[in-house]
């Protein structure tokens, strides 16, 4: 698939993603600077990337030494050039083709990559799913996962992204349902929430955990406490308070399915330092230990965990509709949580990646304390989410 406005030398971000998802080899030439590349880049099985700044290509062309310069790069063909918006990389792709290399440009660059949004139906063979359909949405650029649950003529979306609010409405309508609830499991720090946008555009009610008020929530929302239920059609989602990543985080259970938000991932768990900083991280890490050992990982082994994020190198689970999900028993074995609370806390405090870009502004916007137009909202959340503690061994 090529860009309709291009001469056939560009690939769309969706096409690149499809190739990665199919397990094909994808050769990328990232022409951003090293700092930009290391902070955020395209990953996946079969992806091989060479990083060379755009300025070096310009300099080689000015010296009339492009052929020699390109030969030293030892690029695999076909190669796809990548930059922030698809402009500099288009120039580089042209330069490469002039030397006889099969090169294309990633249309719209990393901004185009950030607009890729795919969905798949989660396997729902467990008890409590009668008549319900569950879609998992994946934003490959950040690893954010959202969910649409449809039962009868009603639907609920869990952890929706503002940038894709219309998508949930359309997908519910395609399945003969109206969106009744838009739920955040917690106050997100890595992306703009879609709950208010959906409440404004539809009859859906915005829902947040009750503890969001203590964090400074400024807009009207239905507040969800531990044990409360959200009914959608014939299905019921039950709230399970799971603090640690944040104080208010509340997971949702649908039969044997757990929407865990950022409390628990398939191979890690949410970092505890974003709400209260370094000073409060130790106490929240201890809370996280109790949540994991006494609540989430204490659930039956066959409980299916549908997390709020996936790590960049995570593989979809073919046993669960090719979605990013795993059973509690598998996750418990994988995480190897220390038996002692203090040992867990120290491990967590030593395992923080860089904080998400602009996270303080994003939190303020998600609480209703800061306003952002659609353009600023899209720009502010570009980059990696970095909401997970680094898995052991990373």
Automatic annotation (TrEMBL):
One example GO MF annotation: metal ion binding
Superkingdom of origin: Archaea
InterPro entries recorded: Metallo-B-lactamas, Mito_Persulfide_Diox, POD-like_MBL-fold, Rhodanese-like_dom, Rhodanese-like_dom_sf, RibonucZ/Hydroxyglut_hydro
Keywords: Metal-binding
PROSITE patterns xref list: RHODANESE_3
Rhodanese domain ranges (all copies): 22-122
Pfam families tied to this protein: Lactamase_B, Rhodanese
PANTHER family on file: PERSULFIDE DIOXYGENASE ETHE1, PERSULFIDE DIOXYGENASE ETHE1, MITOCHONDRIAL
Protein name, entry field: MBL fold metallo-hydrolase
UniProt organism field: Halorussus aquaticus
């Amino acid at each position: 698939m090529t860009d309709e406005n291009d001469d056939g030398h560009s690939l769309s971000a969706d096409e690149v993603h499809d190739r990665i998802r199919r397990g094909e080899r994808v050769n990328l030439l990232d022409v951003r600077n090293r700092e930009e590349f290391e902070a955020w880049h395209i990953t996946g099985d079969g992806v091989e990337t060479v990083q060379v700044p755009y300025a070096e290509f310009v300099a080689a062309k000015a010296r009339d030494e492009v052929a020699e310069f390109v030969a030293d790069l030892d690029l695999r063909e076909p190669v796809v050039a990548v930059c922030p918006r698809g402009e500099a990389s288009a120039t580089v792709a042209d330069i490469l083709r002039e030397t006889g290399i099969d090169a294309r440009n990633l249309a719209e660059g990393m901004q185009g990559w950030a607009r890729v949004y795919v969905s798949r139906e989660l396997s729902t063979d467990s008890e409590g799913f009668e008549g319900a359909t569950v879609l998992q949405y994946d934003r490959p650029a950040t690893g954010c996962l959202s969910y649409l649950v449809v039962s009868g003529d009603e639907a609920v979306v869990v952890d929706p992204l503002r940038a894709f609010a219309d998508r949930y409405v359309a997908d519910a309508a395609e399945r003969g349902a109206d969106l009744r609830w838009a739920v955040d499991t917690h106050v997100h720090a890595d992306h703009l929430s879609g709950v208010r946008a959906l409440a404004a555009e539809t009859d859906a009610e915005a829902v947040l955990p009750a503890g969001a008020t203590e964090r400074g929530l400024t807009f009207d929302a239905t507040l969800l406490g531990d044990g409360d239920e959200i009914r959608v059609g014939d299905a019921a989602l039950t709230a399970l308070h799971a603090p640690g990543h944040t104080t208010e985080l509340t997971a949702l259970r649908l039969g044997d399915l757990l929407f865990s938000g950022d409390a628990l991932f398939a191979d890690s768990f949410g970092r505890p330092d974003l709400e209260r900083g370094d000073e409060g991280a130790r106490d929240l890490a201890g809370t996280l230990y109790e949540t994991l050992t006494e609540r989430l990982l204490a659930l039956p082994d066959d409980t299916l965990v549908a997390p709020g994020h996936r790590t960049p190198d995570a593989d979809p689970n073919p046993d669960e509709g090719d979605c990013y999900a795993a059973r509690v028993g598998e996750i418990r074995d994988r995480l190897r949580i220390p038996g002692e609370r203090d040992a867990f806390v120290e491990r967590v405090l030593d395992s923080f990646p860089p904080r998400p870009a602009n996270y303080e502004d994003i939190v303020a916007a998600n609480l209703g304390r800061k306003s952002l137009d659609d353009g600023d909202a899209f720009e502010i959340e570009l980059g990696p989410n970095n909401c997970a503690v680094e898995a052991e061994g990373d």
